[in-house]
Amino acid sequence: MRIEVLKSKIHRVRVTDANLDYIGSIEIDEALMDAANIIEGEKVQIVNINNGERFETYAITGKRNSGIISLNGPAARRVMQGDIVIIISYASMEFEEAKAFKPWVIFPDEKTNTLPS
Q1: Residue 24: C-alpha distances to residues 16, 52, 59 (Å)
Q2: Which of 8, 22, 58, 70 is catalytic?
Q3: CA–CA separation, 104 vs 70, rounded Å?
Q4: What is the pLDDT along the chain (117 residues), one digit of tens a residue?
Q5: What is the domain extent for residue 92?
């Protein structure tokens, strides 16, 4: 039996931009993507703390250490600049493998979207 489990989580980052005139996705600071083990093109779920919205898109790499969290295309309608979001990805794995799996969970500074020193 395979189950879906938490793979990666970027907990509480601030939306720096919402760009409706873009083809889609969420642009994430490359340092945050690396720390959370999220790759470009990976499907992610966005949870907006401010309004309760939950939606899916895919990750694109933003400039390293820029703090960028930009929702693009239709997803830009689900957030406002300054909203706090959680970015989550999941993995499918065998039940026994999942029992031992440890996800990558990071807690950036939500004012600067940077990792603690």
Answers
A1: 16, 20, 9
A2: 58
A3: 21
A4: 999 999 999 999 999 999 999 877 999 999 999 999 999 999 999 999 999 999 999 999 999 999 999 999 999 999 999 999 999 999 999 999 999 999 999 999 999 999 987
A5: 2-96
Count: domains in the chain: 1
Length of the chain measured in residues: 117
Q: Is residue 114 in some structural domain? A: no
Residue 105 lies inside a defined structural domain of this protein? no
Residues 6+ apart with CB under 8 A from 2: 92, 93, 94, 95
Active site residue 25: yes
Find how far residue 16's CA is from the centre of its chain.
13
For residues 16 and 84, is the Cβ–Cβ distance under 8 A?
A: no
The answer to whether residue 113 is domain-embedded is no
Scan for tokens 């601030």, then name that residue.
Answer: 14
**Of 25, 66, 70, 92, which is the active-site residue?**
25
